[in-house]
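User: Predict structure, ligand histidyl-adenosine monophosphate.
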Amino acid sequence: MSPVKKVEKKSQTKKKTIKKPVDGKKKEGVGVSDIRVIKAKVYLLLRGMKDILPKDEYFWKNMYHTAENICEAYGYGFMETPVMEDAGLFIRSIGRGTDVVDKEMYVFEDKDGSKVGLRPEFTAGITRAFISHGMSSLPQPVKVWSYGQLFRHDRPQAGRYRQFHQFGCENFGVHDPSVDAEIINVAHNFLLDLGIKNNIYINSIGSPEDRQNYIIELVGYLRTKRSYLCTNCRKRISQNPLRVLDCKEEQCQEIISEAPQIIDWLSEDSRNYFMKVLEYLDELEIPYILKSTLVRGLDYYTETVFEIYTEESVGGSQDALGGGGRYDLLVEELGGQPTPACGFGIGLERLLLVWRKKIEEGEIEKKEDVSKIFFAQLGEQARMKSLHIIEELRRGGIIVHHNLGKPSLKAQLELANKLGVTHSIILGQKEVQDKTIIIRDMESGIQEIVDQKKLKTEIEKKIKKM
Ligand code: HAM
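Assistant: Predicted complex:
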């Protein structure tokens, strides 16, 4: 018997089993012969994906608003780039030989045959957009923030997904340690605002030349230890030797701990730059830990690199809440004008895991924003002190406008006028020495000198009177 006949016979048998309704009437609208048992396929969530449900609305909304508030306070403008870009953009920016490009990128052929990729991170797309929109002709620095979905074909586990979210900031146009410090400050305080105490693990990987010299030394060392390394690290020696430094395999740990340290290969300029960044962090009282093996998993970094961990974490790169650093060459490498840049990204699913626990433990604090105040500074010492005072005020619920990039007091006060603030706080060299600060009434021009410790109380009094 042929297979076709077999099917015919089966369907005939089925028809015979259909019974008419007992009352002999036809059911309205549905013929008896139309009745079938429909077995719908149940579609499951793809591996590594996650639905965000209303029960988690509180977390997601608050993370977004906290990001929005801190970015507004620090002058970062919202920016969003497409989820899909030319795959080459990511390959060129992040680099072949990195896990993100070699193992985790979603790349496919579009209908026109072009190769497109789902964004595994924001920096490459934002840099592409910075160039496409001629943003180098805007007043620098150009400060932007982004928030949204990213895609990496990672091995799913707690807080790690194939579609995940990041909040990130990028600062283009200024090569100055104060910018690195500001970027770290924003990331650190975003987490603090949610009640999450955190530590910054930091390192400098210097200029590409510094790194090249270091890599020669590192490869020489790793070759002598080759037989003790895990299989992956043996391959990494020739493909991407820096990656050996963040290998988690037990057998590689001793070898990594005795490896030459990149910090010893920095040029004088890079070393001085890094020291200045650390000085700023000291001034801001941001807890940091120097980590000589921290090199980050993306190729575009130069100079400062950092990762953020909860206070209680021991700093394994698998559970970093976020990371970032300087990428001074990327804009030029993607065809733009040479433009230094620095930024960070915080993984929101990982943050949510930690934050939910903190909420359950009752550690959350919400803060409201108010701002009619401008902060102006004059002189290097004052500038150094400024971020600290601004941050203290912000934590106390007082948001101040500022532009630390403008050295001239006149220009800053002009900006304060344009913003329509009622008062300006002015910190000069003398005030730094005297531990005082000036509060200027912008309408009458009357200035009063107050003790820095009383600044918050004095400003609160002024705000209340308004
Ligand atoms: P990244 O270290 O690759 O840096 O990612 C930042 C954070 O995103 C990680 O610390 C982690 O919390 C989160 N993350 C990464 N992969 C996953 C995943 N599969 N599931 C959940 N969370 C994940 C960057 O992306 C750089 N673009 C940061 C940056 C901005 N550097 C300069 N500017």
